[in-house]
Design a protein that fits this description.
Elements: E1 7-11, E2 17-18, E3 21-22, H1 26-36, E4 40-44, H2 51-61, E5 70-72, H3 73-84, E6 89-93, H4 96-104, E7 108-109, E8 116-119, H5 127-138, E9 142-145, E10 151-152, E11 159-160, H6 162-173, E12 178-179, H7 185-195, E13 202-206, H8 209-218, E14 222-226, H9 233-236, E15 245-247
Parallel strand pairs: 1-4, 1-13, 4-5, 6-7, 6-8, 8-9, 9-12, 13-14, 14-15
Antiparallel strand pairs: 2-3, 10-11
Helix pairs in contact: 3-4, 3-7, 5-6, 7-8
Length: 264
């Protein structure tokens, strides 16, 4: 057995949970990480919820994840904007996860001459708000989006997500947003800073080749693709890059968290 102990960044939906259901083995996996003293962060591109909200959601499935072990695209966006323009202002289309993160970063939320238009996830996109965003961008506000995901899951099926609404605004303004969330490696680097570890000692577990694995590779992480979410073996083969390891689900990593790549 190797003496190396990996730290983990793990996607949430499709890896640990499916909507409001626990992925079998996810609770045991996190327990193994705690017992081994490994650091971990649960990542999500969803900017709707605050870490406190997500902690409660995960608790309902049986997962005990503290707030400071949850990293969202909203938090990454707020950190990015604070580093770019401290004490700035933004017109925001989004929910509490995004507005709370920006407030805590010292940002003023306004629809009058903002520095940025920031687009996040919401289940109640407003035509009036989208129109206001378009006009503010035309007037010089910089366009930021929390993540490029075109769709999100629900019990009833797919929902239009940030990427789809960003495409609408982009078509109207002719200006592309800067996406902070996965697959931008900025999301991963900000998560590594929050975790207090280095890429050489950290793994990324995800269920999507186009976001999780892509961003992990670009951030210099070794990556594990689980087939319990979006990607399957056939779709994964279509990408020009490959994960370090492919497993059916996170349950296949039980007993192997010290080094999942060790053979024998």
């Amino acid at each position: 057995m190797t003496e190396r102990q990996w730290n983990y960044l793990t996607d949430m939906d499709g890896v640990l949970v499916h909507e409001d259901r626990l992925v079998p083995g996810a609770d045991q996996f996190l327990a193994e990480l705690r017992d081994a003293g490994a650091r971990f962060l649960v990542l999500t591109n969803n900017s709707i919820y605050t870490p406190r909200d997500l902690r409660a959601r995960l608790a309902r499935t049986g997962l005990d994840v503290p707030e400071d072990a949850i990293w969202t695209s909203a938090l990454a966006t707020a950190r990015f904007l604070h580093n770019q323009r401290p004490g700035g202002s933004a017109f925001v289309i989004g929910e509490a996860g995004l507005t709370t993160a920006l407030h805590e970063a010292g940002y003023v939320l306004t629809d009058v001459d903002p520095d940025y238009v920031v687009l996040g996830e919401t289940r109640t996109y407003s035509f009036t708000a989208i129109t206001r965003a378009i006009r503010l961008i035309e007037q010089g506000a910089r366009f930021i989006a929390t993540n490029p995901d075109p769709t999100g899951p629900s019990r009833e099926g797919l929902l239009p997500a940030t990427g789809s609404v960003a495409a609408l605004i982009e078509r109207a303004t002719g200006l592309s947003p800067y996406y902070v969330g996965k697959p931008n490696p900025l999301m991963m680097r900000s998560a590594l800073r929050a975790l207090g570890t280095h890429s050489e000692q950290t793994l990324m577990i995800g269920d999507r080749m186009d976001t999780d694995i892509h961003s992990g590779i670009e951030a210099g992480l070794r990556t594990i693709l689980v087939l319990s979410g979006i990607s399957d073996r056939h779709s994964a083969e279509r990408y020009p890059y490959r994960p370090t390891l492919v497993v059916d689900s996170i349950a296949d990593l039980l007993g192997r968290t010290a080094d999942p790549f060790e053979v024998g």
